[in-house]
Every structure is written in structure tokens, then in C-alpha cells.
Specification:
Radius of gyration of chain B: 24 Å
Shape of chain B: globular
Distance between the termini of chain B: 67 Å
Structural class of chain A: alpha+beta
Oligomer: heterodimer
Structural class of chain B: alpha+beta
Distance between the termini of chain A: 59 Å
Number of helices of chain B: 9
Helix content of chain A: 10-25%
Strand content of chain B: 35-45%
Shape of chain A: globular
Radius of gyration of chain A: 24 Å
Number of strands of chain B: 21
Number of domains of chain A: 2
Order of helices and strands of chain B: HEEEHHEEEHEEHHEEEHEEHEEEEHEEEE
Chain lengths: ~475, ~450
């Protein structure tokens, strides 16, 4: 059998014709059954996924990992409570069993009495997958991908001889979804996410340093083809070369200037999670009753949206079938809105924002961030640095997290000391910690160079694609952990 | 037609026949398959009411094939229909064109060796309603245990039935089934004009009836309340005592030290010549023992079908063994150790660490002990943000932590601080490995004392 250039060609099992006939009839029957059984609301989420991951190490492709699958998540609400069941069995009987189980969780017994009929429950299909069916075929082949990744790892070697571990990775996630719910929602979409990672570890016998960068996009089949591999390899090799001989940072409290792009992880961790309605439900956000109040420095305006073309956190519809909005979270320091999903709206009263997201059919949707960033200000980035006598410049961030009392942390991958308004020596090993209520008022300056960076966010509904972003910002004082 | 609600043991033989037939069709010389199925139920509550109840049935298979050039390809799927199986084997065959010529895995030479016998009683599920009752009672008891505890924002109870299968074209057949239940309670407490504090506890058992619910409530309550009296700590170098849980967290974060895959990839602090070298004080010994009777999640075989076993990694401070898959073991000229996954590039990972004092008789009686030590030290309860604060390939860590400053027996919770250091320096600055080993959900370890660790605080 001759090898094919495409490893897999997904079967669009949710194609329009079958959606309007087979799936419409089956799902409507199930939703009517749920409502007739006493549920306030019912939702069925179907997905068909086809993914591939490719890894280049040194000068070889060491892993090609295709995967595919299908599944359904069925969620039923009754008086604010919900039962959620997921299954890989998409047969009519499999879905019916899953619904019965979800109803049973809420103490409801399945009934077929016809207080509602099957007709006209679902609205006309909203088909967001038009023009998208060819995306998967237009993505780079494994051969193309392998060549590009191997070019990246070879450039790392070329640009910096002290790099002795070189890795390039690519992942493509293709997802076809169908959402049907008892309020009439009936929508289908195709999503495409691609991400590229480039990592280097350098050593000179006495010191070691590692640097990683990630790039990502949504709905853009040519993303890898248009990736500027030379620029990325140069960026990574320069950074790892600089950090190889960096000293450990001296710990303490000091002002910090955080670079744009992935610097936005500070807002994501320090504040963004606390503005999700899931946090109100849990009682774990200090901002629950602060809408209309000043919670940040007046220089801070923060946005979360799912609409930026091609951004990693953008969506045509969220996982509950709603078109994403541009949500102003904070305007001039004043809290404006929370991010809300269906359960959040039901339990907290905050209207849905198209932010109901989940990793897969195995998770119930929850209010989650999409593309989240601090808006740009009027300063040049150098203006911020010039105001600092003794502080830290965080050029590149690692990941971070936020705890149940609002304490956040994130790691600095590439840092420089600021002395008398100028960048000086590189430093490593810094971790920034703080609490949102204390730090947000200390973001006193925002530069004019807003940019976004792709990332992954793990929380209650699994790992999802997001972007973080900001211009250069200055934090007047923050605790910097180190040695 | 294959049922998608697979009973793996019943279906194993028909899977074998179907895959042999597909292998012939695609001219595949060798193949193996790893499969896992689970069904679980879980509940979360809020203020005495059910909040969310979940149920799931999941299945996943990974098929690995060797093509006519002996190159390996892999595909994974949750679609266990006959069509799905054929698509998976075709996908794996097509992927084999990209197989790594420099490292071709084979079947484990131990994939048909006898497996250890472990005691893993299979427990009947209680059902979601009973789980909900238990959790509502537990939440109420925890809130009532202290006036400052207002909510239990993170809570959950679950029960899972889990099956695993490994088969290959050479006749290996491995199957295991286990049941498991878990309970977690994380409380939030707050006193007037003070910041909220949070902590919690977790318990595992083979079934929900076996969960130590009272113990979980008491531990969550005690831990949370112990953080109400908090102060910032001054930045400086401290004598630190790691609780068993926190030391195991750190050890797991740096498991690449013992991982042959990481060594071959150049991302471990160890190298091929590290065996026999001193990496820690002589009082420290470390084993990996996935078969320990307290490991509720024990598996008797790894992703390649190799039997799980106990292996000594560090003996009296000397690195003596690495963890291996089939391919890494072949490169090192040793036997696989039962720590492999299954994939295009086979991963290696630890099961369950056992840390102990190498020799009680050599322990200095004047060494600090957390029950009796009177001078000032920091007791580290738990480490946070390990995914971002650990640079395993460099040996460094800088991590937020929960803990207390202890002085003359008085414990004061530490507000917002980080701990930083180098793992090898830490291993060599250990001043005591206490004698009493504590069983935790993630391994066994005593309290371990380290001098001179950097702590950054806000005082």
C-alpha cells in the first residue's frame, strides 16, 4: 500500500445534510424527552476531532502522533443544579442512556409523555462551518511540517553553538462541533488550531539555560507555512545564549517592568481568572460585588474577546453555541463585567458573554477567558524603564497560576536588572507573587505596544487555547522570589 | 460490530483477531495495542446543595505498528467501532513512514513475563446519590468544625471503574481492572479584617465506602485553621523541614534525574555515567515502588506490558539505577524496569516514590525532629506552581509555598513567600531524614530537613 501524504482525512460526520436530517431529529427527540422529564434546560454537545502532533529533536523527526475520536457531552439543569454525562457512544441508544443518566442525577425519571412535541424545538441550523470544510486539507502535510521543524532545529544549531538540545514541535487540532439545546440553540462549526513550539537548552559545562517559545493561531491553515522560522530561531538562540551566563536574581520587593505579549500572563493569572463567574459561584473572587468600583489603577483597561481574526483564543461560537463578544472587563481601573457562561448566568445573574468553553466533550463548559489583554497606553516602552531606579525587567515569562484566595504567581524566564533607568545584567530564577487586589492598583504605566501571545490555560473545564497580551507595563512594587 | 462500551477483558480476544486480520491487509509485520476504558461518577456541592454531578464513559486505544522497513507508527483513538479500529491501524501504518530510524522500539522482552500479584479489591459503586449524600455531610461537618471556615469552594467525591489492556502480535496479553474512589475538601476561612486562607486534604480508597471521610475533614479543618494566624516572613536563608507531601512534590518535579529517556534526550542533570556517583547525603535513599500496598493506583504492568517492580534509585546518597522503557534499557544494556508509556516516542516516568533514611543506626540523635525541635525553622507544607517554577533540566526551583515559621513550638503561617534553590545542593544539604516514614497518596516519605534554603517574603 503506498503511503499517503495526508496522514488522515477526517470524515465530516456532522456535515450539513445529516445535521438537518439525522442529527436534528435525534437530538430534538432527546431534548424534548429531557424537558418532558422535568428538566429546566438540556444541552447536547457533539464533537469529532482529528489531531496530529509532530516532534523534531536535534536533526531527526522523533514522533508523529495522529489521533482522532468522537464523543458527546449531555448536560441537564434543574433549579440551578446540573447533571453532566459524557460518552464515546454516539449511537441513538448510547445517547439515550447518557441522557437517562444525567436526568437520574437530578432525581428525574425519564418520561416520554408528550407535553412537548418534537416539532419546532430547535431553531434553524446556524452553520458556522461554511467555507471551513477544506481547512484540514489545506493544512501542511506531515512532510512539509517535518521539513519546517527540522529547518528550525538546524537554525538553532547554526545561530548558537552552545545549544545542545534543540526541539521543534507542531500540533494541529481540528474539531467539528454541533451544539443543540432546549432553548432552540442549534449550531455547528469547524475549528482549526495550530501551534508551534521551539525550545533550546544550552550548556557550557558549568551553566545551563533553557528557553522556549510558542506560537499559535486559529482558523488559519497556512499558519505553519507563513511562520518566520529564521526570526523565531534567532530569538530563541539569542535568549538562551544570554541566559546561559545569567546570575540568580536577588530576592525582594521592587518595581518591575513586564514586556508585552506573554507578559500578559500577569493579568491572566492575577485578575482574569477572578473575573470568571465560576469564581463567583465558588466564592473565591474578591471582586464579586465590585462592579462599578475602582479595582485597578486608572491606567488599566482590560478586554477579553473571542473575535480577533486568527488569534489562538478566537471562536465563531463558544461551546454553548453563542457567538463570542468583546467584553470590557475593566475600564480606566473600574470593574465593568464578568465573563459568564450559561451556568454562570443562571447562578450569578451575569449575562452570558460567549465564554462557555471546554477542552472536549468530556467536560461541562465553564466561563473561561479567550483573548485577554490590557489595552495599550501612551508611553514608549523606554519611558517605563527610565522611571525605575532599581528593579526587574521581565522580558519573557514562564507559566503561572492563581490559588483559591487570589494569590497568583508566575515565573520569569528571561529577566534583566534595571539600574538607574537602564537595563543591565541578565538574571534568572525569579518568581513573581502577589494578590490581585494589591497588584492591580500598582500597574501605573502602560506603553503603546500591545501584542498578543498564544498559550494554554488549564482550569475547571480542562485545557483550552487562549491568548494573553499587553503592552509593556510597569508595576510599582511586587515581590520577586529568588535566591 | 464492536461495542463501544468495551469490557476489555471480554473483548480482548476479538480485538486480537481483528487486529491480526487488519495487519495482514496492510502488510504490517508487528503490532501492539494499549487500551484503557473507564466509567466514573462524581459530585460537587455548594452550601449543602448539589452543584454539579458528572458521569462519563471513556475509552481510548493506542495502536503501534511496524512496517516493512521495521519503522514504527502510532495512532490513538476513542472510536472503538470496527471502522475506527481500521482507520487507526491505517493511520498508524501511514505514520510509520515517519518512524525514527535512530531509535526503533521493539516489544518488551518481558511482555509475557509473570506479573506480580497485588491486592486490589474491586468495590461496587455506591452510585451518584449516595456520593452526593456523603459529600453534603462532609461539607457541613467541615464548615461546622470552626467558626472561621465559611465555605468549601473546592470539593468533590468520585468513584471510578478502570480497565487496561495490552496485547501484541507476539501473543502478549495483559489485562487489569481496578476501582478507585477519591474525596477532596479545600476549605476557605477568614477572620475579621484579615485575608482569606485556604487549605485542604484528599483521600483515596478502592471504593467510596472505604474513604476516610472523617480523617479528610479533620485534616482539611486543622490545616486551614493553622493558617489563620499568618504573618509575612523576612527574606533570608532558613533551616527548612519539608513535610512528606512537599518533599515528594519536589522529587516528582525532578524525576528526570532518574529517567533514562530524559538522559538520552539531554534534558536530565544525570548522564549515562552518573550511576555510582554521589548525589545526596548518605542518609537519603530513594526507591520507586508502584506495587506498594498503599498505592491505590497500582498497575501491574506498564504501557509496553513490562511488569511493574520495585527499584532502588538512590542508595545511601549514591545514584544506583535509572527508570527505563524497552528502548532506553536496550541503549543502556539493561532490562526494562516497567516505567514506560506507549506512543510514537515512548515516555518514561516514575510510579510511586519511597523515600527513607538509609540507616537508622547512623542517624545522629541530635538531628532536628519536627516533633521536638525548639529552634526557629520553616515547615513547608506544600509547593505551588511546580509547572512553572521548576527548571528540571537546570536543577533549579523557585516556588511559592504554604507553610509555617516555627519557633519554640509556636507555628505562625507564612504569608505569600517563595522558596528557591538547586535540587542537588538541596540533596547534599539535608541535615536529617527523619526515621518515621509517612504514607501519603503519592508515595512514602519522612519529614526531611535541609539547611540554608533561600526564602523570599514580604516582611
Amino acid at each position: 500500500m503506498a503511503p499517503t501524504t495526508k496522514l488522515t482525512i477526517p470524515e465530516n460526520f456532522l456535515i450539513k445534510n445529516s445535521v438537518n436530517t439525522y442529527w436534528a431529529e435525534l437530538l430534538e427527540t432527546l431534548l424534548v424527552k429531557a424537558r418532558n422529564s422535568g428538566a429546566d434546560f438540556a444541552e447536547i454537545f457533539l464533537e469529532n476531532v482529528d489531531n496530529i502532533g509532530i516532534l523534531a529533536e536535534q536533526d531527526d523527526i522523533t514522533s508523529v502522533s495522529p489521533s482522532f475520536g468522537r464523543g458527546a457531552g449531555i448536560r441537564v439543569f434543574l433549579s440551578g443544579r446540573d447533571g453532566f454525562v459524557s460518552t464515546n457512544d454516539l449511537t441513538p441508544s448510547g445517547l439515550a442512556q447518557a441522557l437517562d443518566k444525567a436526568l437520574g442525577m437530578l432525581g428525574l425519571k425519564t418520561t416520554n409523555s408528550a407535553s412537548l412535541t418534537n416539532t419546532s424545538l430547535l431553531s434553524k441550523l446556524k452553520n458556522y462551518s461554511k467555507q471551513k470544510s477544506q481547512w484540514i486539507l489545506n493544512c501542511p502535510t506531515p512532510d512539509e511540517t517535518s521539513d519546517k521543524l527540522l529547518l528550525a532545529t538546524s537554525l538553532l544549531k547554526k545561530y548558537n553553538k552552545s545549544i545542545n538540545v534543540r526541539r521543534g514541535s507542531y500540533s494541529r487540532s481540528w474539531q467539528e462541533i454541533l451544539v443543540a439545546s432546549s432553548d432552540g440553540t442549534f449550531a455547528t462549526d469547524i475549528r482549526l488550531h495550530q501551534s508551534i513550539g521551539l525550545n533550546a537548552l544550552a550548556s557550557d559545562g558549568n551553566n545551563r539555560a533553557s528557553i522556549g517559545r510558542r506560537y499559535g493561531s486559529s482558523d488559519f491553515p497556512d499558519d505553519l507555512r507563513e511562520w518566520n522560522v529564521e526570526l523565531s530561531a534567532n530569538d530563541v538562540s539569542e535568549s538562551v545564549g544570554t541566559m546561559l551566563h545569567a546570575d540568580y536574581v536577588d530576592a525582594g520587593q521592587m518595581p518591575a517592568v513586564l514586556a508585552n505579549k506573554f507578559g500578559g500572563v500577569i493579568f491572566h493569572e492575577a485578575c482574569g481568572h477572578l473575573l470568571e463567574t465560576t469564581q463567583i459561584e465558588r466564592g473565591t473572587t474578591p471582586f464579586a460585588d465590585k462592579v462599578g468600583e475602582l479595582i485597578a489603577h486608572p491606567s488599566v483597561t482590560a478586554i477579553d474577546e473571542g473575535t480577533s481574526k486568527g488569534a489562538f483564543g478566537s471562536l465563531s461560537i463558544d461551546d454553548e453555541g453563542m457567538e463570542p463578544q468583546r467584553t470590557v472587563l475593566i475600564k480606566n481601573g473600574i470593574l465593568q463585567n464578568f465573563l459568564s457562561d450559561r451556568a454562570g448566568e443562571l447562578r450569578t445573574g451575569h449575562p452570558r458573554t460567549g465564554s462557555g468553553r471546554r477542552q472536549s466533550h468530556s467536560f461541562a463548559a465553564a466561563s473561561r477567558m479567550r483573548n485577554t489583554y490590557i489595552s495599550q497606553g501612551d508611553y514608549e516602552p523606554s519611558d517605563l524603564i527610565e522611571t525605575v531606579d532599581n528593579g526587574l525587567y521581565c522580558k519573557s515569562m514562564g507559566g503561572g497560576s492563581v490559588g483559591p484566595t487570589g494569590q497568583f504567581n508566575f515565573a520569569v524566564e528571561e529577566g534583566y536588572l534595571i539600574k538607574n533607568g537602564k537595563l543591565t545584567k541578565p538574571v534568572k530564577g525569579a518568581t513573581l507573587i502577589g494578590e490581585a487586589q494589591e497588584i492591580m492598583p500598582r500597574i501605573s504605566m502602560c506603553a503603546n505596544d500591545l501584542d498578543l501571545a498564544a498559550g494554554f490555560c488549564g482550569s475547571v473545564s480542562g485545557n483550552i487555547n487562549v491568548t494573553v497580551g499587553q503592552p509593556h507595563i510597569k508595576v510599582d512594587s511586587i515581590t520577586i522570589g529568588g535566591r | 460490530m464492536y461495542s463501544t462500551n468495551l469490557d476489555l477483558d471480554q473483548r480482548g480476544k476479538s480485538l486480537l483477531e481483528k487486529l491480526n486480520s487488519l495487519a495482514k491487509k496492510y502488510n504490517i509485520k508487528m503490532w501492539d495495542l494499549g487500551a484503557a476504558c473507564s466509567s466514573d461518577s462524581s459530585a460537587q456541592v455548594d452550601s449543602g446543595e448539589a452543584k454539579q454531578m458528572k458521569g462519563s464513559q471513556r475509552s481510548n486505544i493506542t495502536i503501534r505498528v511496524w512496517n516493512e522497513s521495521s519503522l514504527v507508527g502510532v495512532t490513538s483513538t476513542s472510536d472503538l467501532t470496527e471502522t475506527g479500529l481500521e482507520k487507526a491501524i491505517e493511520g498508524a501504518y501511514n505514520a510509520s513512514r515517519f518512524g525514527n530510524k535512530n531509535e526503533i522500539p521493539f516489544f518488551s522482552p518481558q511482555s509475557k513475563s509473570p506479573l506480580a500479584k497485588v491486592r486490589q479489591p474491586i468495590k461496587d459503586a455506591l452510585g451518584i446519590k449516595k456520593l452526593l449524600e456523603l459529600l453534603i455531610e462532609a461539607e457541613s461537618s467541615l464548615i461546622n468544625s470552626h467558626g472561621a471556615i465559611k465555605t468549601v469552594p473546592y470539593n468533590g467525591i468520585s468513584e471510578t471503574n478502570y480497565q487496561r489492556l495490552y496485547i501484541n502480535s507476539d501473543g502478549a496479553y495483559r489485562f487489569m481492572r481496578r476501582t478507585q474512589s477519591a474525596l477532596y475538601l479545600y476549605a476557605r476561612a477568614q477572620e475579621d479584617s484579615r485575608k482569606p486562607r485556604s487549605s485542604g486534604a484528599i483521600r483515596y480508597a478502592y471504593g467510596a465506602n472505604g474513604l476516610d471521610i472523617e480523617g479528610c475533614i479533620k485534616e482539611a479543618s486543622d490545616r486551614t485553621i493553622s493558617h489563620l494566624n499568618y504573618k509575612p516572613i523576612e527574606t533570608g536563608k532558613y533551616l527548612v523541614c519539608f513535610t512528606p507531601e512537599s518533599f515528594l512534590e519536589l522529587l516528582n518535579a525532578f524525576n528526570s534525574l532518574f529517567n533514562a529517556r530524559s538522559i538520552l534526550d539531554g534534558v536530565s542533570l544525570s548522564d549515562k555515567d552518573s550511576l555510582g556517583k554521589k548525589i545526596a547525603v548518605p542518609s537519603l535513599s530513594i526507591y520507586d515502588n508502584g506495587l506498594h500496598e498503599s498505592n491505590i493506583s497500582a498497575s501491574t504492568f506498564d504501557g509496553e506490558g513490562t511488569p511493574t517492580r520495585k527499584i532502588c534509585l538512590v542508595e545511601e546518597g549514591i545514584l544506583v539505577n535509572f527508570l527505563h522503557s524497552e528502548a532506553t534499557a536496550r541503549k543502556f544494556g539493561v532490562e526494562p524496569t516497567g516505567h514506560a508509556g506507549l506512543g510514537a516516542k515512548v515516555s518514561v516516568g516514575p510510579d510511586w516514590f519511597e523515600v527513607s533514611n538509609s540507616n537508622d543506626e547512623k542517624t545522629d540523635i541530635s538531628s532536628p525532629d519536627h516533633k521536638t525541635y525548639e529552634e526557629k525553622y520553616v515547615l513547608v507544607e506544600g509547593l505551588n506552581a511546580i509547572h512553572s517554577g521548576v527548571k528540571a533540566s537546570q536543577g533549579s526551583f523557585s516556588l511559592p509555598f504554604d507553610g509555617w515559621l516555627v519557633n519554640k513550638g509556636e507555628k505562625v503561617s507564612i504569608e505569600a513567600a517563595t522558596i528557591a534553590g538547586d535540587i542537588i545542593e538541596l540533596f547534599n544539604n539535608i541535615v536529617n531524614v527523619e526515621k518515621i516514614n509517612v504514607i501519603t497518596p503519592h508515595g512514602i516519605c519522612p519529614h526531611i530537613w535541609v539547611e540554608g534554603l533561600s526564602i523570599t517574603g514580604e516582611a
